[in-house]
Amino acid sequence: MSDAPLRLAAVERRYRSEAGDLPVLRGADLDIAAGEIVALVAPSGTGKSTLLHLAGLLEKPDAGEVFVDGRAAGSLSDDGRTAIRRTTIGFVYQFHHLLPEFTAEENIALPQMAAGASRRDALARARDLLAAFGLTGRESHRPGKLSGGEQQRVAIARALANRPRILLADEPTGNLDVGTSDRVFAELLEQVRGHGVAALVATHNPALARRMDRIVTLAEGRVVPVVGED
Ligand SMILES: Nc1ncnc2c1ncn2[C@@H]1O[C@H](COP(=O)(O)OP(=O)(O)OP(=O)(O)O)[C@@H](O)[C@H]1O
């Protein structure tokens, strides 16, 4: 039995439509160790979002199993899955989904409070994370008063707020210029390595992918390694 924070074993997912069945994942296997960051680089439509949704317990596989810290997600109730999503998994979406009526620090504090932290502790951690991502001075800004890149950094900080065991990200630095993207990614790496997070990052950016521990792609519904060309 693997003790990897995240393990997908023989996962299958197909979508049904009037045109027939579309098998997207057909026996996908993936293990991510604590402190390991894996790049998922695959053409559009091959199933990256589907894989991230299954890993994040947002969808259930048609066959196979997702293990979080060795526990089979299929054996959990809906409440149990929600609890794991809240406390164990951090998500960074392509479109950040920050709450517009709350400030940057509140956006990072709220998931901590939902997981049981006091408002005071949650805000203190929010400020630390904002500082780590270069956003000191922006704590009280609402998302509408932040640039796209700043909003994305707040979203990354929010994903890390509950010290997740697993981080799932879809183009986490997509809106950032090269210099900012480098710095934000360096901080993300430090958080992942320093806190033993298992991270899966979908990206179309080959330079970013090369900075991760390994690169995988999707081929015929399976996860396959990409061997470096240099
Ligand atoms: N809810 C759904 N119902 C029917 N088909 C779906 C559904 N979700 C995804 N698909 C189809 O499944 C395939 C994989 O979709 P997915 O979003 O996982 O791809 P992706 O690799 O993330 O693509 P992109 O890089 O464009 O975001 C696509 O052909 C898509 O049209």
Keywords:
230 residues, alpha/beta, 10 strands, binds adenosine-5'-triphosphate, four-stranded antiparallel β-sheet, 7 helices
Q: Your description of this structure?
A:
About 35% of the residues lie in helices and about 25% in strands. With about 230 residues, it is an alpha/beta fold. The strands form two sheets. The chain has a six-stranded mixed sheet with strand order 6-7-8-3-9-10. Strands 2-1-4-5 form a four-stranded antiparallel sheet, with helices on one face. Strand 4 and strand 5 (about 70) form a beta hairpin. Helix 3 crosses helix 4 (about 120-130), helix 3 runs parallel beside helix 5 and helix 5 (about 150-160) runs parallel beside helix 6. The two termini are about 35 Å apart. Adenosine-5'-triphosphate (ATP) binds near residues 15, 24, 48 and 50. InterPro entries: AAA+_ATPase, ABC_transporter-like_ATP-bd, ABC_transporter-like_CS, ABC_transpr_LolD-like, MacB-like_ATP-bd, P-loop_NTPase. One of its GO terms (molecular function) is ATP hydrolysis activity.
